Amino acid sequence: MTDSGDRYYITTAIDYPNSRPHIGTAFEKIGADVQARFRRMEGASVHMLMGNDENTIKVPQRAREMGLEPRAYVDDMARQFQDVWRALEISFDDFIQTSEERHHVGCRKFIQAVYDAGDIYKGKYAGHYCTGCEAFKTEKEVAEGSGKCPNHPNTPLTWVEEDNYYFRLSAYRERLLAHYAAHPEFIQPESRRNEILSLVESELKDVAITRKGFAWGIKTPFDPEQTIYVWFDALLNYITGIGYGTDDERFARLWPADMHVIGKDITRFHCALWPAMLMSAGLPLPRMVFGHGFVYRKNEETGEVQKLSKSLGNVVEPMELVEKFSAEAFRYYFMSQCPFGGDGEFSFERFASVYNADLADKLGNNYSRTLTMWARYLEGRLAGEPVDATQWRKGIDFQALVTSVREQVGAFEYNVALQRIWREVIEPGQRFIDETKPFKLAKTDPEACRAVLVNLADWMRAAAILIKPFLPRTAESYYRAFNFDETTPWDRVRYADALTPLNQVGLHVTAPLSAGKPAPLFPKVEVRDAG
RNA sequence: GCCGGGGUAGCUCAGCUGGCUAGAGCGGCGGUCUCAUAAUCCGCAGGUCAGGCGUUCGAGUCGCCUCCCCGGUACCA
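^ inputs. structure came back:
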């Protein structure tokens, strides 16, 4: 799946710390995390990097508003972001803040390398300048503000020309096109690739990469009056975060990245500007860039689908859902309901409905059923001759199923993979109980009842393994409900282990039970109360 | 305008390089079990696959045209 052997370096986009993360940003992180967890299961040595993009003009502004030093402000925001990511079980290995020294050092080294390569020249940037923001406004912003700055409608914009440095992006057009052709998998999914292809084929303009007069940010080494501008600075986090300019050995070990997970809106920066920058600096390119879709908010009453925005007042904070439901439920909803490469929708009502149907009634309920019967009919412990533990999945080509689910998860087709797991693993387990009726067999044919229950143990083991990247906690509860861990330790389980025969020797329930029952994994909720 | 992506059952989505009577989940309706979180399981519900033309023995699945929705259009999360 990756040609970099057993190492897998995956990144997510770094976020502006102006406001706290919402469910859309969480969507990206979870999608990347599922991949990271999956690759770890497959035996890769995974490094997952996340971070915040702090060298923006809004940072000192916001800090001032809150009466803080910029540094204190970004540190506090970084802590808050990480709290959310941890609550969502995002298994990141490192978190970079672009205000950190390691980033500054690496940035300066990089821009100097590009400068030395002759790809940076001094030019004039001209645009609408807002004295209130002390910044240039884009044409789009000006249009939105009907000719004025959206933030300062009473301050007239002035047309200002400024000397600053340009990166010779246009010079890389041919090389970029050659790279896309030679590596068709470079841009994912397909739709994003087409978009970039036509963009680069049409025209590439040089980009200004420095600005004048900012105290906050990274100074340009060859001209201390200039500060490195947003994109040139931000993209570099992917290399400064693994030691570029500060730890050569580590950088050599981890670069190039196997996967940049980003939002579809910033595809061009990652698929055109970034590779060109790397080419100029003489560094290898990342193997893939995945531009995921967006999460929209569906208004329950009107049925209207809207963008998440502060002004519409429809922003949903991840912690709200985590507290009301659980991180597992949060992860499950977005991974199963929103195709990662496309757009998805969120509503509280639908969230609760999916939660009840797939998690409470299926995953959770069958856990309770199985364990209760084990306790009641076998006193939690298996004795006697081994039985055929694969009865529950007769009629399913389990080998083919595991193979295709692996491919789908590896290709970020999470919603499809989960649907298959539910339809061909989770639900057959429930149907098996219904068809064999172990609760009746217990009275008429204890041996047959025992065989059914052994099958259910195998079912739980297989389910645990397959859902592990998506629902790490639940998967672990499933796996540790029996002493499976003695045969294959939980942290070393691979997808292929779902196919290995169940070890029935000494098999027994290890889940905590009270009065012969486990605590519900996903307590059912009222759909109406969801919001 | 230009470029790109879409339009498949009430809702959310699958349908790979064209081929059995177009699928799943949810919702809805009827029935069932009792191990379980009043959960499960079974059956039913019939959508001109946006519309038209064409290629083909055969098209959601390819080509062209029309309508509608969305995104991008560059230094913007």
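Residues 118 and 168 of chain A are 9 Å apart (CA to CA). Chain A has a mean pLDDT of 89.
thumbs up if we can close this ticket
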